[in-house]
Design brief:
The chain is 58% helix and 5% strand. It is built from 39 helices and nine strands. Strand 8 (362-365) and strand 9 form a beta hairpin. Helix 26 (518-530) packs antiparallel against helix 27 (534-546). It is globular.
């Protein structure tokens, strides 16, 4: 048990980063530090939802991770592609007896083989059924004969292979090996240390996009716990990430036509991509989506239930008993109460039937368990299929909560948080936390922060820290930051930074800057930036720019952009003193989906008098849900007299937790004499560490004769950097201003 906790505590850093404390750059005010004051709960909610995608992807292990060394084979010319995970293909005619179709040489094969022969890490990426696994298998079979071949079934088994020589480590579906206790930069270096070792992997584009996008949104915020697995992907040599297209090039099509295999030539004109046609993948979606009769209705329902189990974070094959309960909720209404439905066994047999002799919608496994096809899962994520446009149904959460172990309870809770079914997240994480799962304790603590239950949050975060979960140090520090206790917040952040958490290093640098200690702040920010933390790169760029080192600042901001941190484009723009030079970079950021860049573009247009254009761009940011865009649009509308719409935007921004908007509403209620409503809005803004709201609360209480409360809020404002707070304290509270 102790060893398990140590592993979880040390290696949970490979995933949790994206879940905690996103503090987005406040480009509108040109003050990076202000995001701590501005949007903590909103950004955390967005990040947590994206985190679900990453955590669910990372947990896609059919069996529980093995504690034994992974099975070993010896590479030879008879290496079986099916054993390597190549999808079954449509059967051939009498002249095509081999099980697998003839391999069609891909244009990238020569480069791939050189990389495999050279050793180290190489990954093939592409859509489902594009031929990634087949190409990798052919390269291994040709270049690695006589080497030991290891096929670990999960992260725990992967750890057993560090230092193994004369080996091929096969990581089909790379996302299964990322996450807690999984592959990170240090482990990959250990695996690849012997010169005669190659680590070869595949990953679907859909999963890669989740990981990369989660890494991007994660890097917006701090403190964070380094998601070592996702960050690993951003640090890899892009030449070793080989793209495998579903469509063949002209040269590849020519080679396919020259084969004697009818299946290969037929797939050239098949529906979908070449590999999809060989594996009959489009037929899976067709079987699931189109049909009639009782058997189709039952079979479709059981497939939908199995797909939704995977969408709900349950990565293991689904037991027969669970599908028996759940599939009834997916039957069309006219069929639900009929007594002539086929048995579940018949429905499962129908759903597991190979299409055209190749793949099947459900994969039957030992113990009467069934796993939904990867292809159907990806198509559902794209909005296709019977459940593509639907939320996971309530009975799924209940059923899976009862059968999942602690690992699955964690991923189920993450998936529920994506759907904003927070009561499910709390319930399953609480159960796992009571079992001693530190990962669940951390997630539960962060959820309770979001739900404004700080005392309960602190209890679970402390228990996670006491259990050896180093990643909980940053969130615990953030909780104190929300309470206005910057001293205690810095203490916990410093512990996290000292323990090697680059997210805590980044926030510690932020806190030190606010305290005026730029020298130590730069040291921590450089350490985090050198470790590949894009948000630290941005913060370092701003620090350097403020002291005049604009050239180096620009280099760090560009490195953050190159690492996939599109928010750094706005930082690059801010480093340009001339708006005409900033504008092209802001356009790039806006094109990359950055609503904050749209808001900043709107301010540039407004400053040069292009008010109609500014309003149009700001409206786009506001309609995307960006509160900064709402505030810019609010100002533009108020300027031209559209007060009603401007007021609606201000209130919407306040409801979404934008501190400037909440402070403005509080001031307005105070001016109207509604002191209770004013206090409520100002307290909400002050809870986000918004210094202007603290100052107004202090003034409000001073005028009302609530002297102790007034002094307390002016002290909070002073610690948050409000310039006038010290003067007011000295003037009105000379006997004890806390200075």
């Amino acid at each position: 048990m102790r060893h398990r906790r140590q592993v979880i505590g040390a290696l949970a850093t490979s995933l949790i980063t994206i879940l905690i404390l996103p503090l987005l750059t406040n480009v509108l005010s040109h003050d990076l530090e202000a995001w701590v004051d501005d949007h903590p709960l909103l950004a955390w909610t967005i990040t947590l939802a994206l985190a679900t995608l990453l955590a669910t992807a990372a947990a896609r292990v059919v069996q529980q991770p093995s504690r034994k060394a992974p099975p070993e084979l010896t590479v030879s010319t008879t290496l079986d592609p099916l054993a390597m995970g190549v999808k079954p293909a449509v059967p051939g005619g009498p002249d095509t007896a081999p099980t697998m179709p003839t391999y069609v040489e891909r244009d990238f094969d020569e480069s791939l083989r050189w990389m495999v022969a050279d050793g180290g890490f190489v990954c093939l990426r592409g859509p489902a059924a594009a031929g990634k696994t087949r190409s990798a298998t052919e390269a291994i079979r040709r270049m690695c004969q006589g080497r030991r071949l290891f096929r670990p079934d999960g992260p725990a088994a992967l750890l057993k292979l560090a230092g193994t020589a004369n080996a091929v480590v096969w990581l089909d579906d790379l996302e299964r090996f990322l996450g807690p206790g999984g592959l990170d930069t240090a482990l990959l270096e250990h695996l690849c240390a012997p010169a005669d070792v190659v680590v070869i992997a595949t990953i679907r584009d859909a999963e890669l996009a989740k990981l990369q996008h989660a890494a991007w949104i994660r890097d917006e915020g701090a403190p964070e716990v380094t998601d070592a697995g996702a960050r690993l992907l951003t640090q890899l040599d892009p030449r070793r990430m080989i793209a495998v297209s579903a469509q063949l090039t002209d040269a590849e099509r020519g080679r396919a036509r020259s084969t004697l295999d009818d299946r290969v030539r037929g797939a050239l004109d098949g529906e979908g991509g070449f590999g999809e046609s060989l594996a009959a993948a489009p037929a899976l979606l067709q079987r699931w989506s189109v049909g009639e009769g009782a058997l189709f209705a039952s079979g479709q329902a059981v497939i939908s239930a199995a797909v939704d189990c995977r969408r709900a974070g349950y990565a293991a094959p689904v037991p027969f008993a669970v599908l028996d309960v759940l599939h009834r909720h997916y039957l069309p209404a006219p069929w639900r109460n009929r007594g002539d439905l086929p048995s579940l066994d018949a429905a499962l047999e129908w759903a597991s039937q190979p299409m055209m002799g190749a793949s099947s919608c459900l994969i039957p496994l030992a113990g009467r368990r069934y796993l939904a096809s990867d292809y159907l899962l990806d198509r559902t994520a794209a909005g296709a299929g019977p459940v593509g446009a639907q939320r996971v149904r309530a009975p799924v959460w209940a059923a899976l909560s009862d059968v999942g172990d602690d690992h699955h309870l964690v991923t189920i809770g993450l998936a529920a948080s994506q759907e904003q079914v927070y009561e499910v997240s709390e319930r399953v994480w609480l159960r796992a936390a009571h079992h001693g799962n530190e990962w669940a304790m951390l997630l539960l603590g962060m959820l309770l922060v979001q739900l404004r239950r700080p005392d309960e949050a602190e209890e679970w975060l402390r228990r996670a820290v006491e259990g050896g979960c180093t990643p909980a140090l940053g969130p615990l520090g953030y909780l104190f930051l929300l309470r206005g206790d910057t001293t205690e917040a810095e203490r916990w952040m410093r512990q996290g930074a000292t323990a090697g958490d680059v997210g805590s290093m980044s926030v510690l640098g932020l806190l030190l800057r606010r305290a005026g200690n730029d020298a130590e702040a730069e040291r921590w920010l450089r350490k985090a930036a050198d470790a590949g933390h894009p948000q630290a790169m941005v913060r370092l760029a701003l620090l350097l720019a403020e002291r005049g080192a604009v050239e180096e600042a620009d280099q760090w901001a560009q490195r953050a952009v190159d690492a996939g941190h599109s928010a750094a484009l706005t930082t690059l723009a801010l480093l340009q003193q001339d708006p005409s030079q900033a504008e092209p970079r802001l356009r790039r950021a806006a094109d990359a989906g950055r609503a904050d860049a749209q808001a900043l573009l709107a301010t540039i247009y407004a400053e040069r008098g292009e008010l109609a254009r500014a309003e149009r761009v700001a409206r786009g940011a506001a309609e995307a849900g960006d509160v900064m865009g709402m505030m810019v649009l609010h100002g533009l509308l108020a300027h031209r007299g559209a007060t009603e719409e401007a007021e609606e935007l201000l209130q919407e921004a306040a409801r979404r937790g934008e501190p400037t908007a909440m402070t403005a509403l509080g001031r307005r209620f105070a001016e109207d004499g509604d002191l209770a409503e004013a206090e409520a809005w100002l307290r909400r803004a002050a809870d986000t560490q918004h210094a202007p709201a603290m100052m107004l609360l202090g003034a409000l209480f001073l005028a009302a004769g609530r002297i102790d409360e007034s002094r307390e809020w002016f002290l909070h404002a002073k610690s948050s950097g409000a310039r006038d707070a010290a003067r007011i304290l000295a003037t009105h509270f000379p006997a004890g201003d806390g200075s």
